[in-house]
Amino acid sequence: MILEKLFIIIGMLLAHFLNGSNLFELGNAIRPDFMVIFVIFFAFRKGAMYGLWLGFFGGLLTDTSLGGEIGPDDAIYYKIGLHSLSYSLIGYIIGKVTRNAYTENYISITIYVFGFTLLSRILTYLLFWMFFHSNHSYSFFYVSLYNAFIGPALFFFFTWAFRLDPDEVRQ
């Protein structure tokens, strides 16, 4: 039990590290979002509460890498909580709504990862726009497409790395 949680934390830190690296970058704003794939995987496989908590802490890790922004009053504003809220909502929704619809094959994983990454990106963009300003370089479609392309391989790797059975019953 404790060892399982430790491996999940290590996986989350690895996803955070890979999000910050330029190793898989294709263009100016086209890089995969490993953290949202991680959250989607555990929300599908383990249920809504795993999706909620991994989304919350994974989003906080993602938010810490954003840094601060100097506002018009020369104060520094930090964007903590935006990714956390969107990833938590996505993780919870996936765990609750798609419980019976998920099948583990290449096509369904690709469609789910594309759709939920796109939904997560749109929700995060709306939160940025509501609380700060619009970001014209924020990529929706290309990041979602990139995640959909690598998502099935990462799902099968996560299944192997976390030693989960393909038909594991969620809690």
Automatic annotation (TrEMBL):
A Pfam family recorded for this sequence: MreD
InterPro entries according to UniProt: Cell_shape_determining_MreD
Highest taxon of the lineage: Bacteria
Membrane topology label: Multi-pass membrane protein
Any one GO cellular component localisation term in the record: plasma membrane
Localization, UniProt: Cell membrane
Broad class of the protein's primary localization: membrane
A biological-process GO annotation: regulation of cell shape
Keyword field: Cell membrane, Cell shape, Membrane, Transmembrane, Transmembrane helix
TM annotation in the entry: 6-24, 36-56, 76-94, 106-132, 138-162
Protein family (similarity comment): Belongs to the MreD family.
Name assigned to this protein: Rod shape-determining protein MreD
